[in-house]
Structures are given as C-alpha cells and as structure tokens.
Automatic annotation (TrEMBL):
Domain Thiazole synthase ThiG: from-to ranges: 20-272
UniProt record similarity statement: Belongs to the ThiG family.
Protein name, UniProt field: Thiazole synthase
Pfam families linked: ThiG
Function description: Catalyzes the rearrangement of 1-deoxy-D-xylulose 5-phosphate (DXP) to produce the thiazole phosphate moiety of thiamine. Sulfur is provided by the thiocarboxylate moiety of the carrier protein ThiS. In vitro, sulfur can be provided by H(2)S.
Catalytic activity as recorded in UniProt: [ThiS sulfur-carrier protein]-C-terminal-Gly-aminoethanethioate + 2-iminoacetate + 1-deoxy-D-xylulose 5-phosphate = [ThiS sulfur-carrier protein]-C-terminal Gly-Gly + 2-[(2R,5Z)-2-carboxy-4-methylthiazol-5(2H)-ylidene]ethyl phosphate + 2 H2O + H(+)
Pathway in which this enzyme or protein is active: Cofactor biosynthesis; thiamine diphosphate biosynthesis
Quaternary context: Homotetramer. Forms heterodimers with either ThiH or ThiS.
Biological process (GO), any one: thiamine diphosphate biosynthetic process
Gene from which this protein is expressed: thiG
Annotated compartments: Plastid, Chloroplast
SUPFAM superfamilies xref list: ThiG-like
C-alpha cells in the first residue's frame, strides 16, 4: 500500500496564490478602490489591512499635480508595494475615456511606475443605473490596446462582448456582479460563469459585492479576483471589513481549487450501508 502523500494536493493550502495580468504577477486576488472613505487615514488603513496588490484610482477625481505633498491618497500610499490601476470612472463617451486613460498613464510615471500601462476602462453614459456602455467600451478598448495600454474593461456580464474584448487584446474582463455601489451581490452569476468558462484571460468580478460571503462566492465560481470599494468604505468598520473581504476571497479561491462537490436533488447518506453491524 502506498502511503505517500501527493504533494500537489497540498497546494490548495498554500497561502501564496498569485495570478498574472499582462505578464505582471500579483500576490493578492482582492483589488480595492479608493473612493467614499471618511478620511485619508481610514482609506490607508483599509488598503493595508486588505493585503491588496492593486489599488484603483478614479483619475477624473484626482488633481495629482496640485496636491503633491498634501493630504492626498496618492501621496499617502506606498507605490513600491502597490500597483496603481487608473480608472476612467465618470467618462460618458469613448473619447472621454481615452483622454483620461492617457492622463492616468502619466500619473503612473509620476509615482515611479514607468512600465505601468494598466487602465481600468469604464464608459458609463447611463447616469441612473450606471450600466456600462458596451459599444463605447469596445470602441475605446480597441483604440487603447493599439496604443500599448493594458486594458481592463468594466462590462455588463455579456459573454459575447467579453469574448470580443478578449479577441482585440484586453488583458482581463471585469463583469459587474450587480450595479455599482448597490451591495446586491452576484445577480448575474450564471452569465459570469459562462464568461469564465470561455475566457483565456483573468476574469475579475467588479461592482455590487456587499459581503465577504459574496466575494467568496465570486471566487468559488472560478473568478480570478474581485474588485470592490463601497462594501469596505461604507461599512461601519472599514478596516475590519477590509480584513473580512481579504479572508473571503482567500476562502473562496481555496474552495474552488479544492473542487466543489456536485449538488444532488436528494439526500445521500454520509455512511455506507454495506458492512453495518447487525443488531440482534
């Protein structure tokens, strides 16, 4: 009888579970936004506690050149340990998003990340529900990819659009779980699963996550990572919630790697029927 343990199975227990976007490796699968916090200190502590590798910053809300050395979140974070993901939040057209993406790349250079061509692409013309514009997103993505950007597009969970964006050279797909800032969780989990199954690039669930269990669920269905902001920033204890989200993402990823059992319609006994002691 061979009692040797297959060490490959123990990889599930390994705390180091990095993933790669555009040939750059990241140690955390949780990405965190920087908006909506009560103050700079709270934002800094939450970001550090989360263990995130990637921090997304809305470029339209940043006046970097005017705030150097002042109480500014960009100045207050250690960019030697964090990777900036500029985003085009607030842009209603492809043209606006392209201009903001270019400004974002310049800010990356100013903080010392000279090789950082990442941009989270958001084109949102719907001011009420904040659903992303698929046509504007595709148009902007195609242009930015041609200019050497590593584009991470935020989309409604449409598997066809996701494949089109992958085919033109985007580096991830970022489908929403539910509307931005709603905390409604994974309303479109089936569509996200289809995107995951058909994608050869990382799929990051972005928007709508409200609890650690929802972050965990996103990872359980095979997402490469989760990006969230409001769930942490608007909680009663953002630092505690940042830690909860960190653990939720880790837990969900480990669950996915371990292989989730198939659901059954009927109960199945835990103990075998054969070999039971007969009671006389």
């Amino acid at each position: 009888m061979n009692n040797k343990i297959n060490m490959d199975h123990l990889n599930v227990c390994n705390e180091k579970d990095s993933f790669t976007i555009a040939n750059k490796q990241f140690h955390s699968r949780l990405m965190l936004g920087t908006g909506k916090y009560k103050n700079l200190y709270e934002a800094q502590r939450a970001i550090i506690t989360s263990g995130t590798s990637i921090v997304t910053v809305a470029i339209r809300r940043v006046q970097y050149a005017k705030n150097i050395g002042k109480s500014n979140l960009i100045d207050g974070l250690n960019w030697k340990k964090l990777w900036m993901l500029p985003n085009t939040a607030g842009c209603e057209t492809a043209e606006e998003a392209i201009r903001i993406a270019q400004i974002g790349r310049e800010i990356n250079k100013k903080i010392g990340q000279l090789d950082n061509n990442f941009v989270k692409l958001e084109v949102i013309s719907d001011s009420q529900y904040l659903f992303p514009d698929p046509i504007g997103t595709l148009k902007a993505a195609e242009y930015l990819v041609s200019k050497g950007f590593n584009v991470l597009p935020y989309i409604y969970p449409d598997p066809i659009l996701a494949k089109q964006l992958e085919d033109i050279g985007c580096k991830t797909i970022m489908p929403l779980g539910s509307p931005i800032g709603s905390g409604q969780g994974l309303q479109k989990s089936y569509d996200i699963q289809v995107i995951i199954e058909n994608s050869k690039i990382p799929v990051i669930v972005d928007a709508g996550i409200g609890t650690a269990s929802e972050a965990s669920r996103a990872m359980e269905i095979g997402a490469s990572g989760v990006l969230l902001n409001t769930a942490v920033a608007k909680s009663k204890n953002p630092i505690g919630m940042a830690n909860a989200m960190k653990l939720g993402v880790i837990s969900g990823r480990k669950c996915y790697l371990a292989g989730i059992m198939t659901r059954k319609q009927k109960a199945r006994p835990s103990s075998p029927k054969d070999g039971l002691l007969k009671i006389i």
